[in-house]
Design brief:
Blueprint: H1 3-10, E1 14-20, E2 25-33, E3 39-40, E4 43-46, H2 51-71, E5 77-84, H3 93-105, E6 110-111, H4 120-127, H5 147-166, E7 175-179, H6 183-194, E8 198-202, H7 206-216, E9 219-220, E10 233-236, E11 255-256, H8 267-275, E12 279-280, H9 283-286, H10 289-296, H11 303-311, H12 313-327, H13 331-349
Parallel strand pairs: 3-5, 3-6, 4-5, 7-8, 7-10, 8-9, 10-11, 11-12
Antiparallel strand pairs: 1-2, 2-5
C-alpha cells in the first residue's frame, strides 16, 4: 500500500501510529476531515491478520465517520482509532492510559468513544489521561453505552425504509432477518419484536441466539444462511463488507437496513442492489444514532434532547430517499452527495480567518479555517 497516495486520493489529514513498549500498545489513529469540526470516532480493538489490515480498517472507518457526521448534521469531522490486540486477553489499564496520552497530544483534533472490542470501562481509563473521550461512565456526566441509541436510530431508519418500499412504516407482520446479535443487533431485535415484526436471526454467540429464540420468538438460522433467507428487510448488524459479488445474487429481500459499518464491499455494490430493485439504507446514515448520542455530551449531556436528535434519523432517511428518487440515483450515492455538499459548503464558509472561533467542544478554537 502506498500510504501517502491513498491519503491524497481520499482526502485524509493525519495518521498517527501509537506504540508504547511498557503496555504493549500498538494503535493507529486516523483523522479524515475536520472541516465541520474535530474528528469524533470510536476506538476499535481487534485481532487483525496484519498491520496493513489494521491501517486500512482505521482509514476506511475514519472516512465513514466524516460522512456519518456530515449526513447527521453534526459539527464534527471523522476519525477512528484501532488497537491491535485481542480484546479478551490484551486489555490493561496501562494500555488504555497510554492511548489516552496519545489522544491528549492531539489537542482536541480527535475525540474517541467505544467501538467493537471496547466498552465504557476502557473509556474511563482513557478519560484518566484526556478529556477528549465520550461514552464514559454516567458518573462522569456521560451517556454511558451508546448501543441503545444506535439501535433506536436504526429502527427509525428501518421504519422510513419500510415506508418507502411498502407504503407504511408499520413493521407489524414484516419479516426482518438480522445478521448479528451484539449489543446493537439485539436491541434492534427487541424494538422490532415490540412492534410486531417476525424475526429471523443468526450469530456465532449461542447464548444470544437462545435468548432471542426464547424472549423474542425469533427463528434461528446458520450464519451462512442468513443472507439468503426470504424476508422483507435484511438487517446486517455484524462486521462490514457483507454486500458483495458473492452475496448480492443470493439476496431474497426487498430492502436492507442494518447497523453494520461499511456494508458495501465497494460502491459499485450499491449500484448492483439498485439494479436488482433492493432499497439500501446507507449504513453511515442509518447507524448514526450512537454518534449523535455521544456528540450530545459535548454540549453537556441531556438524555431527552439526545433521543429527539436520534429519532430525527427517520426524517433524514425520508429526505435521502426523496433525493434519490428525484435524481434517479441509487440511495448510497444520494447519501454521499448530501454529506459531500455539506462539507464543501462549510469548507467555503470557513475559508475566512476568524480569530477565536468556537470548536465543537464549546471551547475557544485556535482560529484555523
Amino acid at each position: 500500500m502506498e500510504l501517502f497516495s491513498y491519503l491524497e486520493q481520499y482526502g485524509y489529514e493525519q495518521v498517527v501510529f501509537c506504540h508504547d513498549r511498557a503496555s504493549g500498545l500498538r494503535a493507529i489513529i486516523a483523522i479524515h476531515d475536520t472541516t465541520l469540526g474535530p474528528a469524533l470516532g470510536g476506538c476499535r480493538m481487534w485481532t487483525y491478520a496484519s498491520e496493513e489490515d489494521a491501517l486500512l480498517d482505521a482509514l476506511r472507518l475514519a472516512r465513514g465517520m466524516t460522512y456519518k457526521a456530515a449526513a447527521a448534521g453534526l459539527n464534527l469531522g471523522g476519525g477512528k482509532t484501532v488497537v491491535i490486540g485481542n480484546p479478551k486477553t490484551d486489555k490493561s489499564e496501562a494500555l488504555f492510559r497510554a492511548l489516552g496520552r496519545y489522544i491528549q497530544s492531539l489537542g482536541g483534533r480527535y475525540i474517541t468513544a467505544e467501538d467493537v472490542g471496547t466498552d465504557v470501562r476502557d473509556m474511563d481509563l482513557i478519560h484518566l489521561e484526556t478529556d477528549y473521550v465520550t461514552g464514559v461512565s454516567q458518573a462522569y456526566g456521560s451517556s454511558g453505552n451508546p448501543s441503545p441509541m444506535t439501535a433506536l436510530g436504526v429502527f427509525r431508519g428501518l421504519q422510513a425504509t419500510a415506508r418507502q418500499v411498502f407504503g407504511t412504516d408499520d413493521v407489524a407482520g414484516r419479516t426482518v432477518a438480522i445478521q448479528g446479535l451484539g449489543s446493537v443487533g439485539f436491541a434492534l431485535a427487541q424494538l422490532l419484536h415490540e412492534h410486531g415484526a417476525r424475526l429471523i436471526v443468526t450469530d456465532i454467540n449461542q447464548e444470544a441466539l437462545a435468548r432471542a429464540k426464547s424472549e423474542l420468538d425469533a427463528e434461528v438460522v446458520a450464519p451462512a444462511d442468513i443472507l439468503s433467507v426470504p424476508c422483507d428487510i435484511l438487517a446486517p448488524c455484524a462486521l462490514g463488507g457483507v454486500l458483495n459479488d458473492d452475496t448480492i445474487p443470493k439476496l431474497r429481500c426487498q430492502a436492507i437496513a442494518g447497523s453494520a459499518n461499511n456494508q458495501l464491499a465497494d460502491d459499485r455494490h450499491g449500484d448492483l442492489l439498485h439494479e436488482r430493485g433492493i432499497l439500501y439504507a446507507p449504513d453511515f446514515v442509518i447507524n448514526a444514532g450512537g454518534l449523535i448520542n455521544v456528540a450530545d455530551e459535548l454540549e453537556g449531556y441531556h438524555p431527552e434532547r439526545a433521543r429527539k436528535k436520534v429519532e430525527g434519523i427517520y426524517e433524514i432517511m425520508r429526505n435521502l430517499y426523496d433525493l434519490a428518487q428525484r435524481e434517479g440515483i441509487p440511495s448510497h450515492r444520494a447519501a454521499n452527495r448530501l454529506a459531500e455538499q455539506r462539507i464543501e459548503t462549510m469548507r467555503q464558509v470557513r475559508s475566512s480567518f476568524i480569530r477565536g472561533e468556537k470548536s465543537a467542544l464549546g471551547r475557544k478554537g485556535d482560529g484555523r479555517g
